[in-house]
Amino acid sequence: MRAADVTSHAFGATVEARPDPVIHVFIEADAGGRRPARANTQRIRQASDRIRQLDRAVDRQRGVMTTNLLSLPRDQRLAGRTAIVTGSSSGIGEAIAHVLAASGAHVVVHGRDVDRAEAVAAAITGGGGAASVVTGDLAESPAAARAFAAQAAEALGGWVDVLVNNAGIFPIGPTPELSDDDVAALLATNVRVPHDLVGALAPGMVERGSGAIVNITSWMAHVGTPNVGLYPATKSALEHLTQAWAAEFGPRGVRVNAVAPGATLTPGNASALEILKMMTAVSPAGQPGRPIDIAHAVRFLASDEASYIHGQVLSVDGGIVAARVG
Ligand SMILES: NC(=O)c1ccc[n+]([C@@H]2O[C@H](COP(=O)([O-])OP(=O)(O)OC[C@H]3O[C@@H](n4cnc5c(N)ncnc54)[C@H](OP(=O)(O)O)[C@@H]3O)[C@@H](O)[C@H]2O)c1
């Protein structure tokens, strides 16, 4: 079965209206960023269980051990840097937050769900990393996104070195049937929010003469798929913004790039493992990706190792767009 044949709604996420405005919850952000925070064992256990469940689901079909986010090798690649990862209470963003923290960055963990965001941050700080939590619905309004940017920068000590625009939603369905609410939420979450955050945070990076922005797009932006029209279009828009922002901010020291994940098993689509397996069966990798696969690429683009890379989209998709093996 080709990816283009997949027409099910099964991997669409539901969009929930959440009443909370941006809330600032600050936990255990020790100034040096190295001292393990007091262990919040229950929260760490919750985060560990979730990670292990997803890892086991991929393991079963890969037949290989996956990387445990809770015991990542540590290094100094991002030592002294600060990073915001939107949507890091879950899935790909959660892995990105862990990986950036393992390389020494002080990370703002974010999502709408306060408990899950706190659990992720507790797991990071429990392992010796530095994490703060700032939660809120970014799609609610441009003012909410800008308030989040200000609060996250404050939590990080006043400056932001790395912004990862990861929060995203993926409701799909036949074009005539996509609800007005889904259309509005897709455009707001996947396009307007990154635009608002870059508008709020890039000037500070420019002022300091350095910064890295990584946008999370999708393999689906690179292939037409029936009944999945607007979601990939929002990611195409973000890829264009990646190039435009590289041109706008690159000459002033801020690198802007993107990572386009392939079909990756996360809480957002965990109920559709069989569909993910079918979609990826004909790709060179032959199986769904892991959040950590995406996180490693983000860390590379955020680090000085990528200092000559501007305006690129790095596909981490198991070759699903480039090749067919069946
Ligand atoms: N999984 C894949 O196969 C795949 C493939 C290609 C691209 N991607 C992209 O990768 C990114 C992450 O996907 P995922 O699979 O990891 O999704 P996920 O498990 O559903 O996680 C999405 C994250 O975004 C947050 N979020 C969503 N809407 C938000 C809003 N309005 N305000 C604040 N936070 C919001 C969620 O927060 P709460 O849950 O706490 O509310 C959660 O932390 C998305 O941009 C997605 O389009 C995913």
From TrEMBL:
<comment type="similarity">
    <text>Belongs to the short-chain dehydrogenases/reductases (SDR) family.</text>
</comment>
<dbReference type="InterPro" id="IPR036291">
    <property type="entry name" value="NAD(P)-bd_dom_sf"/>
</dbReference>
<dbReference type="InterPro" id="IPR002347">
    <property type="entry name" value="SDR_fam"/>
</dbReference>
<dbReference type="InterPro" id="IPR020904">
    <property type="entry name" value="Sc_DH/Rdtase_CS"/>
</dbReference>
<protein>
    <submittedName>
        <fullName>Putative short chain oxidoreductase</fullName>
    </submittedName>
</protein>
<dbReference type="GO" id="GO:0016491">
    <property type="term" value="F:oxidoreductase activity"/>
</dbReference>
<dbReference type="Pfam" id="PF13561">
    <property type="entry name" value="adh_short_C2"/>
</dbReference>
<keyword id="KW-0560">Oxidoreductase</keyword>
